[in-house]
Design brief:
Elements lengths: L17 H35 L3 H35 L9 H13 L3 H21 L2 H9 L14 H35 L14 H28 L4 E4 L2 E5 L3 H31 L3 H30 L3 H19 L6 E4 L8 H4 L3 H5 L10 H8 L5 E2 L5 E5 L6 E7 L1 E2 L11 H7 L3 E2 L1 E9 L5 E6 L4 E2 L7 E2 L9 E4 L4 E6 L2 E5 L7 E2 L3 H10 L4 H4 L7 E4 L4 H8 L4 E2 L4 E5 L2 E12 L8 E2 H4 L5 H4 L8 E2 L1 E11 L5 E5 L5 H9 L22 H14 L4 H6 L4 E2 L15 E5 L10 E10 L7 E6 L9 E5 L9 H10 L1 H11 L5 E4 L3 E5 L2 E11 L7 E9 L3 E5 L2 H8 L35 H23 L2 H25 L19
Parallel strand pairs: 3-29
Antiparallel strand pairs: 1-2, 4-7, 5-6, 6-9, 8-12, 9-10, 10-11, 13-17, 14-15, 16-17, 18-20, 19-20, 20-23, 21-22, 23-24, 25-27, 26-27, 27-28, 28-29, 30-32, 31-32, 32-33, 33-34
Helix pairs in contact: 1-2, 1-15, 2-4, 2-6, 5-6, 5-20, 6-7, 7-8, 8-9, 26-27
Length: about 1000
Amino acid sequence: MPDRSGPGFRPRVGPPSRRTRVLLLTVGVLAVLFLLFVMFAGFWTDWLWFKSVSYSSVFTTQLWTKVGLFAVVGLLMALFVGANIWLAHRLRPPLSAMSVEQQSLDRYRSGIAPFKRWALIGVSLVVGLIAGAAASGQWRTWLLFTNGTSFGVKDSQFNLDVSFYAFELPFYEFVLGFAFSAVIVALLASVLVHYLYGGLRLQGPGRRASVGAQGHLAVLLGVFVLLKAAAYWLDRYALAVKTGSYKGVDGWTGLRYVDANAFLPAKTILFFVAVICAVMFFLTPLRRTWVPALIGFGLMALSAVLIGGVYPAIVQQFQVKPNEQAKETPYIQKNIDATRQAYGIADSQTQPYTPKASTTADALKPDAQTIADIRLLDPNVVSPTFQSIEQQRSYYAFPSTLDVDRYGNGAAAQDTVIGLRELDLSGVQGDKRNWINDHFKFTHGYGAVAAKGNQVNDKGQPVFTESSLPATGSLGEYQQRIYYGEKTGTYSIVGGSNQEIDYTTDFGDKLYQYTGGSGVSLNNPFTRAAYAVKFAEPQILYAGAITDGAKVIYDRTPKERVEKVAPWLSIDADPYPVVQDGKLVWVLDGYTTSDGYPFASKTTLGAVTKDSLTNQRGELLTAANKVNYIRNSVKATVDAYTGEVTLYQWDDADPVLKTWMKAFPDTVKPRADIPSTLMPHLRYPQDMFKVQRELLGQYHVTDAGSFFNGTDIWQIPVDPTSDTKQVQPPYYLTVRMPDPAVTSASFSLTTTFVPSGRENLAAFMAVSADPGPEYGKIRILKVPGDSKTLGPNLVQSQFNSRPEVANQLTLLKSGGDSQLEYGNLLTLPVGGGLLNVEPVYVKGRGAKYPVLQKVLAVYGNDNVAFENTLEEALKKVFAGVSTGTTTPPATTPTTPTTPTNPTTPPAAGSNDPVVQKALQDAQKAITDSQEALKAGDWVKYGQAQKALQDAVSAAIAAEQKAGAPAASPSPAATPSPGATP
């Protein structure tokens, strides 16, 4: 062998060998192919997911809209910029007389010369790609523009339909912005080419610009100025949606006096000035001089300063300020009217309400159902209780905040706290945590757990109506497996021959094989490779556990599933579970929004939907999302077993929803398709209510003069039971508002207000949450400012400051060994006054969950009770109630539509045993009502009255089924205060 270390050795120099080149080329090609596959995998798996949930049209509509915008805008930008670069090169002057400046540029020209065509194509492609990518992000703007639906409402300044501002103006502004970008890029590129090839000079004698360069640049500048004229014209309309700060409203929107009388005419004048200036630029190639055009441009700039800046400032200073209220009142009124309309609060009803310090039996009787349904079980406190008592297995968990729903029919409807036993992989024992168990074995939760909202047992624990594993109780038979839930954040591979763990018994694991229709099939090796890339899990490629028929399920939280199939919706932060028709489904509220409603003030959704529970539930949107129009237009469901997503049209008058339904046809089902078994569980959404209550803090004032003075501003009180210093959340309650038109309590969403800067109560607000004729009706009880009615924080202070209460609290804490947790402080209009109720939970040392030990009740400002049960607390605060009247109660069951004989004794009527049983129950309920009145037990009285309604309803239903008139208990038999049983 040759000596490679000697002085005569010379290493081989030259290009690499053919074998090395082939190897490097192969590695490079494989690397490129891998990168392309990684990019394609995301696209391919998205398509498969949309196809699996039967919303492939959503994917294709978005895709082709983005591709179309990318192609059209990118091509136009590339052609425009490329054409101007080519024209600048074509207009280059001969370089016969070489100056020093041109000699220094000659080396650059020489270097570019061999690649001029490729340089032109490359620059054009780059700017086209950038413009196209930016334009593809405007797919919503394009779809709204092309599918826009009329609002049927015109703005008060320009008399244009609101759809112009919501759908058309944003698109015109996008087109104008693109045109500006194209002209600016083309102008800069042309200047560079003209300079490089001698059309523009910075040094030497003679003209600084050639005739060709002068004409070319003048035309481009003329186009720029003409676009500026178009911008001035659009700015006139943009004043109607201009946002600023005024009278304490940060998102104040619309024209004010100075806008209508200074800025608006200024924009019009500047439009004409800009058009004239543009004409001067267009004439420059003919006149061979820049002077007129530059003078015109200078005059336009001066006009913009004087007419667009100085003049409005003068009007504001010398016309508006001396008499601001008179000048601004008409525009304030426009803002008030538009804001109330845009947020759906125009029909809110406000009535004065002076809470009484004491009450009577007659005043309390219409509110018996409100009292009977007071929710003691705080869904934000009792999750650990559900977890400890009903978790059953370590790999199950409940959400930190449970949900409130209603179960039962008609008068038997019961406020219910419900939670699902969802899968929690963190509870799987450490030695069982592996890829197979995480994704093949532990795949789903199991069953719902529900409890009565207004009762606890003698241990302070919930009274469960659905419990155990498998769950049994009042909810009947339903598919209990939960493959899609709020806590399900990972993917699972189900089906095929895979046997999953249903739950563990004393005899081992109960196994199950998934038969739901959702998921993406993994039979195709190419698909498996795509998901191996998507989840960064190579085992998906070769795992033997994946057999024929296996599917991968992912994006499993209800919120993200609905957001993907309806990317044009904003989704409420609080999905809630419902058992109906043998299925367990999640119900979500979807909002359509816009920031283009003229004169309506804007609000930041992420900010106004925050409360003391936000960290537990999440936010509606980020803090950057500002809107001035919102509608709860869609109710969505997600099947907890199959993952099926269904969208229902809820607001059939919403033009924004109609627009999106045209853009994405056949994705939203009509309201008539909502199952009758689901309808009773639908409710008014919390985030919508929080947005509305925030606006009503100021916009409950409908008179512009009063609004200007700003003396009646409300704010939402800080939650006195939380350490977060966030505002109090709204509460779902069964409540009767003190309105002559309201004869019975209904499921409602409620909140309170306090005056700005003070803690006494300003107002109580409730919206009917039941899907009926009154759904969405907002009623506000406005408390006089001098009534000194306690707000939530003062109620809590009143509670804590009582010596007898403080002593009991000390005993409950047991010297520091126990921990107190205050439940939701509920405010209820009852008996002509306001009743505040707060459950108090105690978590003993070493205990896993709190139990209800005490109930706080405050009526008026001085009647305070702190007792073991709600019944005892109410007896104490209503201890002085008079019972000397004999007026029949307002809660007497409603007369049925079937003809009845009001004098028929309760035991009379049909021989049908069902009817007889119902009438016996009615008689018992009457007796219970009488006894409850004698004892002053208003909770039992309300429950007895509800039982009476249920019994009569059952008798009527049985008689109607048999085809005979129903017997009815005599109204005379219904107890009256003071009546003798």
